[in-house]
Amino acid sequence: RTAALLAVVERARQPARAAVRQALALPEHAVSLLDFSARLHRDAAPAGESLAAFAGRRLDRLRKKALALAAAAQLSDPASLHVLRIGVKRLRYAIEFFAPLYRAGAVERALKTLTALQDALGALNDLSRAGPLLRQCAGDDAALREAVALIGGWHGPRHAVLGRLTLQGMRRLRKLKPFWKD
After folding, report:
1. pTM for the whole thing?
2. Is there a contact between 53 and 86 (Cβ–Cβ < 8 Å)?
3. Which of 3, 26, 80, 174 has the least CB density, counted as fewest CB within 10 Å?
4. How many helices (H) and strands (E) does the chain have?
């Protein structure tokens, strides 16, 4: 049953991959990359502001946004969790970028918290997206729908664990000390 479902999924994946390759080969894609590169080299750093001050303002804003997204997130709402994951990812990447400006231990603690939360949210997002896609691939075929149910049942306990890890990660996010203000 699952082998047949895998074959259907693989057939559905091929046109999607071809569409992505085609989009990346378009001249518009190359132009946007060149434009982005030109902007990087054209824009000068703001005068009169230190890098540490800029980093602090940026990290404050990203932390505030992540906390607001965490407050609004619901385990029963995959879209809110996905938006939270993006907010956590942005904060994490900014901390990684500005890490040389701060104490290594504080940075490592923050990154550990953010990485764990981002990983749990990513796995939850994968599970929430996989179910509908598998059901779509199965269509009305009873054997394929049975395979989808089997896969869903297998992932049920993992989903519960990921939910607990997400709640724990959100609590840790709220307790995350803004080390860049020290």
Report:
1. 0.82
2. no
3. 3
4. 6, 0
